[in-house]
Structures are given as C-alpha cells and as structure tokens.
Design brief:
Immunoglobulin-like; 19 strands; alpha+beta; 4-stranded antiparallel β-sheet
C-alpha cells in the first residue's frame, strides 16, 4: 500500500503530551494510558504486517483519544485491508488536525493516499420493485432514500425483502473504482415461478424482460407469465428466447452462445502456436540469469522530522 510503504506516525512524542500534565484527573490519565497502549500495539502490529489486528487496536485508541497519528496509522490499516471508505474518513480527520503534527512530508503522503482511496471506492445504484422492499447490503439495512451506495472493492451481497413476496439476493464482486446498476424485483409469493438460465459463457450478461439479472448460469424467481430472455457475451453471438412460466414450476433455459471470432482471433489458436514457439526458446530462457529480489523497509515516524 502507498502509505504502508512510506511512513507510520507514532504518538510517542508528537501526539502524546506528557502523562503528568497537571490538568488531568485520575480517570483522564487512565484513559490516556489505555489509548497509548492500544496505539503502541497497533503500530507494532503494522510493523509486523498484521493489519487486521492493528485495525482493532487503533480503532480502540481512536475511540478513547483520536489524535492525528491514530488517524494516520488507522488509515494505513484500512488501506491495507482494502477498506477505502474507512481510510478516506481517517485521512480526512488527519488532514483537519494536520497542523498539530507540523510535518509537510507526512501531510503530502496523506493527500496522495486520500486521492488514491477516493478513486478506489465503488458505487452501486440499486432500483427495487416494489419500492417498499427493505434493501440490505452485507446484512446491513440501507436507508430507503439511498439507492446510490458507496462500497469498498471486493465481494458483497445485496438482498431485498418484503412481506408477502419472495426475497431476492445478489452476490457481486466489485473491482476497484467500479460503478454498477442493479435491479431487484420481488415477486408475490402466490405468483412466483422459478427460472434457471444455463450458459456456457461465465461472463455472459443475462437479461429478463430487458432487466439485467446477472452473469453466467443463474436462477431467478419471476412472476408467472410470459418473459423474454436475452443473453450476450463478449465475442459471442447473442441468444434470445421467449418463454411462458407457470406458478410454482421450475423451468430451465439453455443459452449456448456461439463464438463469433475467426480461428486467428481465438485464444486457443494462440495458446497452441505459443507452445510451439516456446519450445524453441526454452534453453535461452533457462540460461538467462534471474533478477535479484527487491528489498524494502517500512519506516516509522516517531515525531516531526525524525524517522526510524
């Protein structure tokens, strides 16, 4: 990670005033010492690459006493774990209090990391029918007025529920900075039928009645009646079919897509050709010396202008 390879701010001096400050009560001293303990554990865990455990310790320190170094190091942990929304929040909090730290180099690193994390966040626009359905993402209820949701890259589960209707669930893997549109349609339980669409192309996009429902082979609960199915895949001829579904019954549609590329465009042609060519250069590759490994370090900033 960008910041993880640059610097980790320590609170030993810059962010942790002397414990014996006369204005502090006994309870305040205890809280400060507890926060310091969590912080130091978090920094040590970052040094050891134990990001998940470091996050726990640094969040505990932040909840007791949120100093700029706590925000900075917590952003390191969030970014290493792919939690860019949390990193943005921590970096912004750090930037607001950056004048207390007084280290322009660290502030510049934070600004660069903030831009990077903002560009990594994904956005999902969800539409639901009926609109009264409850939307959950990764088990957490989403406000009914918010259908454009920011998410971290990775695996997520979207679900919608409504009394008297069959629940709908979608699993999606989001790539860095990706924007997607989802349509979730709940069917009244008394009118539901089951439709399975099987395709030979995992990346094929499946639409039912013009609505995108997913990629590859999938099962969908639809309202009994007439439906139009179309399946499209990269470098394949599209597939389309009309079907009538019956209440309570399960029907299967096989959408076998045909490759529309010529033999010279097919990846299999180049795999076979490449294998033949590779056989002639194997000896030369084996004789070429392997490059040396690249070593790196993780520096720690204990105070403005001093690293170790």
């Amino acid at each position: 990670m960008l910041l993880a390879h640059s610097a980790t701010v320590s609170a030993q001096q810059a962010a942790e005033p002397p414990v014996a400050a006369p204005a502090l009560s006994g309870d305040e001293l205890t809280q400060r010492n507890t926060a310091r303990t969590h912080f130091r554990r978090g920094v040590e865990l970052i040094r050891n690459g134990q990001w998940a455990d470091a996050r726990v310790e640094l969040e505990a320190a932040r909840d007791i006493r949120a100093t700029p170094p706590v925000h900075f190091n917590l952003a390191l942990a969030y970014r290493a774990l792919g939690l860019h929304r949390g990193a943005v929040s921590s970096l912004r909090a750090f930037m607001q209090a950056a004048s207390e730290l007084g280290d322009p180099a660290v502030v510049a690193q934070a600004e660069t990391a903030l831009r990077d994390s903002l560009s990594a966040i994904c956005r999902v626009d969800v539409s639901i029918e009926p609109a009264a359905a409850v939307l959950r993402i990764d088990g957490a209820v989403v406000d009914a007025t918010e259908r454009a949701i920011s998410l971290d890259p990775g695996d997520h589960t979207l679900s919608a529920t409504l009394d008297g209707h069959t629940a709908v669930e979608r699993r999606v893997t989001l790539r860095r900075g990706q924007n997607l549109v989802f349509s979730l349609r709940l069917v009244p339980t008394a009118q539901r039928s089951f439709l399975r669409i099987e395709t030979n192309e995992p990346l094929a996009l499946v639409r039912i009645d013009g609505r995108e429902v997913g990629t590859g082979t999938l099962e969908e609960i639809v309202q009994a009646g007439h439906h139009y199915i179309d399946v499209t895949g990269p470098h394949h001829w599209p597939f389309a079919r009309e079907i009538d579904t019956v209440v309570g019954q399960r029907q299967v549609v096989s959408a076998n897509l045909r490759d529309r590329r010529t033999v010279f465009e097919s990846p299999w042609f180049w795999v076979v050709t490449g294998a033949v060519v590779a056989a002639g250069v194997t000896t030369a590759v084996l004789l070429w010396p392997a490059p040396p490994p690249i070593m790196g370090t993780l520096n720690t900033v204990d105070a403005p202008g001093r690293t170790r």
